[in-house]
Every structure is written in C-alpha cells, then in structure tokens.
C-alpha cells in the first residue's frame, strides 16, 4: 500500500507529456484471485493499445509507452503483494504505480492528461482516515478505510516514551527532567516523581509524536482518530498541530488491541464523522445554490476552479464528461465522442479543486446534491 500526496498529484498533472495512459484495476491481497489480476491488466493493456492506435500513435511509440506496464504481467512477486486496488500511469516522461487501499473502477483511459479522479476519494477524507494508537510504551499509525487497515512505517516517530527520553530529547532537556530523579524510568511506569514532572515528560514525548505525524502525513488530508487511555488524550491534544484530529477517540490501552480490533472500534467513529461532514457540505450547497456562491453547471465550476475559487466540490464517481476547457477564454466544450485530445472535465474540476486547497467529495452519483454530476460552493 502506497501513500499518495499532493506532491504526487502535482507530478502527475505537470510535465508528463502526451499521450497519458491511466490504468485502474481492483486487486486482491491473497488467494486464487491474485492469478486473475494480471490477466485483467493484460485486457486493459489491449484496450489502451487500441485507443492509442485510434489516436494515430505509431507502433514504436506505443511499445515504449506500454512496455513498463507489460513488464508487470509476469512479475509473480509483484502480484502477491497487492492492496485493494492498483493505479498505473504511463506517459512519454513519467511512469508511476500505486497500490491503493480502496476498490477502484476497472479502467484504461488515454488522454492528454492522466485520469486522477478515482484517487481523490482516497485523498480527501470521505473514504479514508488514520488511527494513531498511542501509549507510553508504543506508537503505531494506521491508514484505514471502512474495509481495510494497514500499519504505516515512519523513521521519525519515537517508539515509546522511554526511547524518546533516551535518544530523541535534547540532552539539556533530559538533564532538566532527570535532575534529582535517580530512577527516571520509574516515572513513566507510574511510580515516583511528581505529577508535573510526568506531564512534562509526556508533553515532550507527544511533541515528538506530533512532529512524526506531520512528517508522515505531509500533504495528506484525512481525519485522524486517537486511540489511547483517557488521561493521555487531553495531554496529546495540548500539543497536537493537526486540525484533522477528531474530537472523539478510542478509549483504552491500544497496546492490547490488534489492528483488526482497532479497526472495528474505529470504523463507526470515522464513518459518523465522514457522514456528518458530507451532510454539512451538502446542506451548505443547498443553502447557497440560488446565489452566485454555488452552481451545478460544469462550465461555471470549471471557470471557478481555474481561479482557485472552489471551496467545496461534489463530483460523481464512475461518470466521465469528456471535452475541453480553455482557461484563457473560460470556454467549456463537451464532446460526446471523445478523442485523445479531450479530457474528463469532472476529473479536471476535482483535481484542481483539491490542489488549490478545496474539499472534494468524490461520491456515487446519487449523493451529489442537486441531481447533476457536479456541485460546487465557491469561496467568493
């Protein structure tokens, strides 16, 4: 499973050259189904080849473009280490693949830009969240969806309070905390030392955890759910710098819980938060749609996106609206029979909303308020 950041998306948007081929494939973690995944990718390669030929690309260029993907077909080790979905991007100047922790549609799309909308549900928080399992003896961070949970690795995260005190805290701070306390290790096991000393050590420890979270989740936007004993939660909140940390938490010592047990406790909390956030966003759109602050016209939305004006965007997953948008003239044209020069305009709107700091809800068509394939609230 691979983390995808805003930096990754910007690389996929910029400097790739054309044509751009985007592959999406649902994959399997284990079992006999893993043998079917390369067969389905082979079928998608055939579709892409046909699209590229129809666009007038010559055989040598097609071979060069698709060979990195074909090279995956016989890599048995690769197919035995998959997540729930696979996204592959190939252009004359760039090749990237991501194992993603959510189901994706089965697609092969050739266009002047990569097709990135299926990734936005993962990036924007309405399908993803993180769990920080925190105790004095252990720190674990998980990336999760409603169906899955995977532990993440971080080189900059302290393993425990003891490890933080021993090797991460500045020596001067260590001396200050340990002055007059001959058995420092006893403090964070609950024996000896004043309450203020204990709290200061926890605050210093949690600052390192918070810094590790900033590094690990840089350019990521998704809710964070804390799992900890109750008395540690307000101390961690005191130093937390991530606005995505939820008010609710999983109560109790997380050291005693497996990832699956953490997941069972986390999903109802995260799902309730996601539902409320999406409902608030939909209500905001419905309150403003009679005004110039909201629209479900794709042309209006694209014009606003090009000026960084979109605050909230709903975009229908599984729906493509092909055409072209000219940012210089603000003109939108929709094509019913797309060519390789056209692009999915919903993908364009969602992607650039996300990259300019807006909130994107990539949702089933029935959940887009107003009944269109797009709905947006503007900043001004």
List keywords for this structure.
five-stranded mixed β-sheet; 60s Ribosomal Protein L30, Chain: A; 380 residues; alpha+beta; Translation, Eukaryotic Peptide Chain Release Factor Subunit 1, Chain A; 16 strands; Nucleotidyltransferase, domain 5
Characterization of this structure:
The chain contains 13 helices and 16 strands. It is α+β, with helices and mostly antiparallel strands. It folds into three domains: 6-115, eRF1 domain 1 (Translation, Eukaryotic Peptide Chain Release Factor Subunit 1, Chain A); 129-273, Nucleotidyltransferase, domain 5, CATH 3.30.420; 289-378, 60s Ribosomal Protein L30, Chain: A (2-Layer Sandwich). A hairpin with a 4-residue loop joins strand 5 (129-134) and strand 6 (139-144). Residues 174-192 have low confidence and may be disordered.
Low-confidence segments, ≥5 residues, pLDDT <50? 174-192
Task: Compute the number of strand runs.
Answer: 16
Return Rg in Å: 24 Å
Query: What CATH architecture label of the largest domain applies?
Result: 2-Layer Sandwich
Number of H- or I-type helical stretches: 13
Mass-distribution shape: globular
- Portion in beta strands: 15-25%
Element order, helices and strands? HEHHHEEEHEEEHHHHEHEHEHEEEEHEE
Structural class: alpha+beta
Would you kindly provide a brief summary of this structure?
The protein is an alpha+beta fold and 380 residues long. Helix content is 39%, strand content 22%.
